[in-house]
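Entry for zinc ion complex. Fields follow.
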Amino acid sequence: MLMIVYFYDRFVPVCTNPEIDKCLKSVSIPFEKNAPMVYKNLALVEWKKTVPELADWSNQIVFDFCRWLKGKNIITNKEDLCNNAVIEEAQKIEEKISSLNVEGASKKAIINVRVNQGTFRDKLLKRYNKCCLCGVGNQTLLIASHIKPWSESEPKEKLDVDNGFLMCPNHDRIFDKGYITFDDDGKIIISDRLTENDRLFLNVDSRMHIELTESNKKYLKFHRENVFNR
Ligand SMILES: [Zn+2]
């Protein structure tokens, strides 16, 4: 218990070996039964940091959460945790917006505002902290930009961090409008509708490149085929 008092952010307050085993089991963390308890405790804390939904929770709350899972006899894994939280949030946004009775451009604008207040943007900020394309770093200007549009996405895709790029207003706008897209290596593809002059003033250059995750690619394929307008 002393460890937790002195290093409150490094350990969860588990005091017995069987108890921490149950915690690890409840969230599907593999562990060696005979490993010292302190290592199991650290494994739980390290795991917590890799789950976006839990990363900001205190260790105490994560421990309470594991006990709650254990009490309900629920065994879950990281993917379930991410997907469930993400789906729930997407549904809440949908419900709020459908209760407003708006359609078309206004609906899209409201969705953009809501999404940019939520965890989708937080997650993108954590991942990139600047425009994916040009490096603008002013956080108040950066926009969570969907690759596959919200309206076309399945519930679990709507707030999937891999379905987004963080972009400056300029690049968000032209990506959203289909003036630019990217190939599977992240190389920019620019629409012929942008003149040399437009490209100059919009800061778009055929040498530009974006870092991709493996899971960005399925969304980008959709963007190339359905949003990009050559
Ligand atoms: Zn930019």
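NOTE: The mean pLDDT is 85.
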